[in-house]
């Protein structure tokens, strides 16, 4: 039996718009982000997918995005599991800083290392490897079993927490996942069989 997993990065947040490192900070969605989340729900519906199990992070931009998708899908009175294991990567001392200001303070090369290396964290924060170390055990214990049971599972989360899941599903190397960008509000859909085996990746 194969199930379906739908991963959606939250819509644009106020800090995305302002070019700020966000991490575990908690800004709201912009008007554009609200539209992106609603559009994601429309795409899922148009693809004939009917999610029955729902996960999101402990951060409101992801929670709000999921709520908006559910509205578009016409789904009410459902159980939503919220867990900080699905939170965005913690940017530590960079959180709240404008990316240009961070480059001015630490240098462009150093900031690039923090942003684009797999295992070098910013001061006080997490690397993508660190993020995967909390996201993947949660995925294996809670999300994947529902998919393997044949459910259609919708996960609304963040660029880096979702990239760690994508890395595991598609069996990508650290170098490959660093080049993978997940656009805000764009659903990524997988058909997954037993033992987490990828059967198909679908674009909707």
Per-chain topology:
Elements: E1 3-9, H1 14-17, H2 31-46, E2 53-56, H3 60-73, E3 80-82, H4 99-106, H5 108-116, H6 128-148, E4 152-157, H7 159-170, H8 174-178, E5 188-192, E6 198-202
Helix pairs in contact: 2-3, 4-5, 6-7
Report on this structure.
- The protein has a single domain, classed as Phosphoglycerate mutase-like (Rossmann fold).
- Helix 6 crosses helix 7.
- 44% of the residues lie in helices and 15% in strands.
- It has eight helices and six strands.
- The chain has 204 residues and is of the alpha/beta class.
- The two termini are 22 Å apart.
The run of helices and strands is: EHHEHEHHHEHHEE
Give the mean pLDDT: 96
CATH level-4 homologous superfamily: Phosphoglycerate mutase-like
Query: Helix/strand/pairing class, anyone?
Result: alpha/beta
SS element count, helices: 8
* Poorly predicted ranges: none
Distance between the termini: 22 Å
Q: How much strand content do the residues show? A: 5-15%
Q: Class in CATH?
A: Alpha Beta
User: Would you identify the CATH architecture?
Assistant: 3-Layer(aba) Sandwich
Radius of gyration, rounded? 16 Å
In spatial order, strands of the major sheet run 3-2-4-1-5-6
What fold name goes in the CATH topology slot? Answer: Rossmann fold
Helix content: 40-55%
What's the number of domains?
A: 1
